[in-house]
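Module 6 notes. Inverse folding takes a fixed backbone as the condition and produces residue identities as the prediction. Think of it as a translation problem where the source language is geometry and the target language is the twenty amino acids. Below is one complete input and output pair. Work through it position by position during the lab.
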C-alpha cells in the first residue's frame, strides 16, 4: 500500500480494539507500517498476544472495563473497533452476553471516544445484517434481516455509530465485512470460519466435510482488502457521519468453488464429504460494493485464487509441527 492518502497516518495515534484477533492484528500491523502509533486493547478471549505486531502497545483488558478503555484511548486520532463476540452460534447460546459485549461494549467505545475527542471511530459491522434478504447483491439500503443475536447486535452497533454522529457531531463509519479470510484466522475455534477449517483439514491430509450441498455461495474477501478499506475510511477527506458501507469483492463463490481453488493451489484433487446443512445458515451472500467505490475509492485488490494460495502458504508454515519448521 503506497497510496499517498495513507501518509496522513504517519505520527497519528490509533486504538485497535480486538487487535490480537484475526482482522484487528492485520489492521494493527498495517497501521504500524504506515507510521501510526498503535495501541491494541484485547481481552484475549479469542485472540492471541503473539498476533500483536512489534511496535504496537498492548493493553490486556476488556472494552467493558471503562478505566482501561479510556486509558488506552487517550490521545487517539482513530479508533478501529473490532472487538466483539464474533460467533453466530455462540451468540445464539448466550444472547445476553452477546448484547453486553457487542452493543453495550460499542456504546462504551463511542462514549469514551466522544469524551476524549477521537477524530474518527470505525466499526467492524457484518454482512450478517442482511440475513436472507431476497435480492442479491446486497445493498446498504436493503432492510436488515436478523437471524441471530449476533446479527442484531451488529445492526445495533451501526445504529449507535449513526446516533453518536448525529447527537454529538462525531465522525463515525461502519464497514460491513463479508466473509473475511486469510492468514492468522483461527482454525481451532469450535466456530472456525469455513476457509480456515478447510485449510486445516487439507493440510493435515484429510478431506473436509461440507455442510449442505456445497452450492451455497459467499462473497469471500481476502484480509488485505478489508485492511485497505479501513485505511481508506480512516484517511478519507469526507466527513463520514455514521455511513454504513459494504466491504466485499462483489463476487460470490460456492463452497465447492473454494475447494476447487484450494485443490488447484495445493496441486491435489479435493473430494469432500457432505453432512446436513447447519440450521440458520443463509444460502447466498454477496456485496454490492458501489458505495465503497464511490465514498472511499475502494476496490478489492486481491481476488479468490491468489487469496487462497496466500492463506495456504501461510498455514503450511504456521501450522507445521515445530520439528518441521
Ligand atoms: N471474520 C469475518 O469474516 C467477519 C465478518 C464480519 C464482521 N466481522 C467482525 O470483525 C471483527 C473482528 O473479527 P475477527 O474475525 O478478527 O475475529 P477474532 O475473534 O479473531 O477477533 C476478535 C477479537 O476481539 C477480542 N475480544 C472479544 N471480546 C472482547 C472484549 N470484551 N474486550 C476486548 N477484546 C475482546 C478477542 O479476544 C479477539 O482478539 C468482529 O467485530 C467481527 O464481528 C468479522
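Target side of the pair, the amino acids:
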Amino acid at each position: 500500500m503506497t497510496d499517498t492518502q495513507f501518509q496522513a497516518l504517519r505520527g497519528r495515534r490509533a486504538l485497535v480494539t480486538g487487535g490480537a484477533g484475526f482482522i484487528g492484528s492485520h489492521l494493527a500491523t498495517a497501521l504500524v507500517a504506515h507510521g501510526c502509533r498503535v495501541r491494541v486493547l484485547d481481552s484475549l478471549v479469542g485472540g492471541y498476544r503473539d498476533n500483536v505486531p512489534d511496535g504496537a502497545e498492548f493493553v490486556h483488558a476488556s472494552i467493558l472495563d471503562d478505566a482501561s478503555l479510556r486509558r488506552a484511548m487517550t490521545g487517539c486520532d482513530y479508533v478501529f473497533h473490532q472487538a466483539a463476540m464474533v460467533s453466530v452460534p455462540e451468540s445464539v447460546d448466550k444472547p445476553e452476553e452477546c448484547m453486553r459485549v457487542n452493543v453495550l461494549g460499542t456504546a462504551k467505545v463511542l462514549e469514551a471516544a466522544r469524551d476524549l475527542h477521537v477524530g474518527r471511530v470505525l466499526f467492524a459491522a457484518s454482512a450478517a445484517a442482511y440475513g436472507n434478504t431476497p435480492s442479491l447483491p446486497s445493498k446498504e439500503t436493503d432492510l436488515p434481516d436478523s437471524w441471530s443475536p449476533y446479527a442484531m447486535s451488529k445492526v445495533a452497533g451501526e445504529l449507535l455509530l449513526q446516533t453518536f454522529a448525529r447527537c454529538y457531531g462525531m465522525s463515525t463509519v461502519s464497514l460491513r465485512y463479508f466473509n473475511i479470510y486469510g492468514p492468522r484466522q483461527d482454525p481451532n475455534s469450535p466456530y472456525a470460519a469455513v476457509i480456515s477449517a478447510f485449510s486445516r483439514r487439507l493440510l493435515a491430509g484429510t478431506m473436509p466435510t461440507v455442510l449442505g450441498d456445497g452450492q451455497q455461495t459467499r462473497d469471500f474477501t481476502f484480509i488485505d482488502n478489508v485492511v485497505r478499506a479501513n485505511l481508506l475510511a480512516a484517511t478519507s477527506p469526507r466527513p463520514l457521519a455514521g455511513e454504513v458501507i459494504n466491504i466485499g469483492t462483489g463476487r460470490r463463490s460456492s463452497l465447492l468453488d473454494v475447494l476447487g481453488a484450494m485443490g488447484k493451489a495445493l496441486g491435489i484433487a479435493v473430494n469432500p464429504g457432505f453432512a446436513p446443512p447447519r440450521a440458520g445458515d443463509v444460502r447466498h451472500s454477496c456485496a454490492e460494493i458501489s458505495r465503497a467505490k464511490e465514498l472511499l475509492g475502494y476496490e478489492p485488490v486481491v481476488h479468490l485464487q491468489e487469496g487462497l494460495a496466500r492463506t495456504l502458504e501461510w498455514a503450511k508454515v504456521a501450522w507445521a509441527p515445530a520439528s518441521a519448521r
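Reference fact for the lab report: DSSP finds ten helices and 13 strands in the chain.
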